Automatic annotation (TrEMBL):
Native source species: Prauserella cavernicola
Protein name: Nitroreductase family deazaflavin-dependent oxidoreductase
Pfam families: F420H2_quin_red
Highest taxon listed in the record's lineage: Bacteria
Recorded GO MF terms: oxidoreductase activity
Organism lineage string: Bacteria, Bacillati, Actinomycetota, Actinomycetes, Pseudonocardiales
UniProt cross-references to InterPro entries, sorted A to Z: F420H2_quin_Rdtase (IPR004378), Split_barrel_FMN-bd (IPR012349)
Amino acid sequence: MGTQYDDKRYLRSGRLGDAFNRLVGRLTGLGVSVAGSRLLTVKGRKSGEPRSVPVNVLTHEGERYLVAPRGHTQWVRNVRAAGEAELRVGKRVETIRPVELADADKPPVIRAYLKKWAWEVGAFFGDINAETPEAELLRVAPGFPVFRIP
């Protein structure tokens, strides 16, 4: 059947992933960025309460991006609804207004993200890697939300 890469793709992190995220989140909150991590805080679309998750901010060709390797997760849905979020490392806080990319614009960003962080998130990409042909990256793009940080 193959891996699902459509706009409904959402991979839960599991117990080990949750533990890793808690650890990275705590360290990042204390001011220790793990491989470039930031703590993304966004208002919950249903509760209105702030929700935080560690993310990797990619700098590619002079622009910054957030990539959701697990698909259309809660943080992605919350960012879409709220339109803004905060990136934090320790006490340094930046308010951002992410702009979601069209699927056609995602392949070079996904490729750059995989080149930098495949060691950490490669399992979430299934059979996709930094060497995957452009046409295949375009085919799977709907399953990987990407936001530019202006």
